[in-house]
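agent> Task received from the user: take the single chain below, predict its 3D structure, and emit structure tokens. No templates, no multimer pairing.
agent> Plan: (1) validate residues, (2) run structure prediction, (3) serialize to tokens, (4) report one or two observations.
agent> Step 1 OK, no nonstandard residues flagged.
tool_call: predict_structure(input=
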Amino acid sequence: MIERGNSRTHPDRSKGVRVAEVKIQGDSVSIDIALIDRLLGFHGSFHIPLEHVTNAYVSGFEDLELQYKLEGTNLGFYKSVGVFANPQGLIFVDASGARDCLVIEMRGERFPRIAVQLPEGEDPNAIAHTIMQRIPDSGPVE
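)
tool_result: status=success, residues=142
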């Protein structure tokens, strides 16, 4: 059953920028990247077992501290898609500076962190909270 998500085919009407779709299904998180962003970022979508997720939180675009583009496209605050380096290591980003990003940290995956901007109207805090509640053995989230 899909608990969260919105169609990735609809643009983020606030800036005309397409955004990612995040779904929590059973024991995994799916991050579906829009087709144009797959081409710009040289990467497809992600399917992550919840047991690999260690943290989920909300971050501002500037707080991601993107330093070096390793693969993908960086159009500044308009759109950044691809693999970047930041002070914490590698991060896959699909976001613009328009709104806060959902950041998911993982172990045992190709990228230790993924940051995506959600469609307008979706609350990244609510999705981060839901992910944290569903992580096996993570205990109660208040």
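agent> Step 4: summary for the user.
The chain has one domain: 21-134.
agent> Done.
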